[in-house]
Amino acid sequence: MVSAEDKKKRIVGGDSVWVRYRDKIGSVRYKNFRGVCLSSRKKGNESTIVVRNIIGGVGVEYGFHTGSRMIYDFKKVSEKRKRGGRVKRYDLRKA
What we know:
Blueprint: H1 4-10, E1 16-22, E2 30-41, E3 48-55, E4 58-65, E5 71-78
Antiparallel strand pairs: 1-2, 1-5, 2-3, 3-4
């Protein structure tokens, strides 16, 4: 089984990511969010990823702290596209 640390290291900007997280503290209900990873910042327990998806014609971005207890699971759905050598894919905001 792959640990969360290994998954966190492999996610980079441009990857399609699926995140399952808790709605609020103490809740047993989980929500799913799937989108394109715009950026990832790796700093131990304070690592974050920014995921963007278009819902109802409006761009929605979530920033997830990967070491948080609110995150149940996250995985990479597909690899990044071979378009440009950017680490932070903020050019996808215009699309």
